[in-house]
Amino acid sequence: MLVEDPIFLTLIFSEPGDDGEIVRLFAERFERDVQGAEHLRALERLCQPSRRLTLAQARGTGLSNQALENAPELDEALQDLVEFADGAGAWIVPEGQTARAALAHAAAQAGFPHGFGPPVLGCDELGAAVLPAICRRGAADLLAHYGLAGANHSAGATAGGTPALQVLRRLWERLEVDLLKL
Predict the structure, then answer these.
(1) CB distance 84 to 27 below 8 Å
(2) What is the SS3 assignment for 41?
(3) pTM for this predicted structure
(4) 3-class DSSP assignment, residue 24
(5) Please, are residues 130 and 180 in contact by the beta-carbon 8 Å criterion?
């Protein structure tokens, strides 16, 4: 495995194209219990935006203003994520640069002075190194190449085409296998 104890993370933004505020985050990691059995642990948090979503934003995110009214503020959701990520080797995300910028901006807004959490690794970045002729526009190219685009849709891909976590895990595993073939 390329990364020891990875956390698979997807961020849902209030604007299309991974812009705007983080309004939802999903994270998963595998953990071993005392008997050595591996199990999946998940975290899902809504994040209250600074202003109400427009109708177009609500449709794009799949979230209603009513659902977000009682959501925790971003700093609380980020604190939960940091606690969830304790001891992790890296956050694996679909689009590396986008996630790094969004997390850095969110950390600054929430009062984390020097960022937080483990390193962020993008499937798009590993894909560009492993399959440079295929991965030209990011994770969507990789999903199509590995035949996971349909699986992503049936797995309940999140708003804006962000890969579902189980598909993100499968994508990362396939990239690791192809990296070892180089």
Answers:
(1) yes
(2) strand
(3) 0.89
(4) strand
(5) no
Mean pLDDT computed over 151-160? 55
Written as six digits, the tokens of 29 are: 């990691």
How far is 74 from 80, CA to CA, in rounded Å?
10
**Residue located via tokens 């590993």:** 126
Of 88, 77, 68, the C-alpha closest to 112 is 77
CB contact at 8 A, 45 and 77:
yes
CA neighbor of 11 nearest in space, from 93, 110, 88, 89: 93
Cα separation, 56 vs 43, whole angstroms: 26
Q: Alpha helix locations (H) across 74-181?
A: 74-84, 96-110, 123-130, 139-145, 149-154, 165-181
Distance between CA atoms of residues 129 and 175, nearest Å: 10
CB neighbourhood size of 43 (10 A): 17
Per-residue model confidence as pLDDT tens digits over 67-124: 999 999 999 999 999 999 999 999 999 999 999 999 998 888 888 877 678 999 999 9
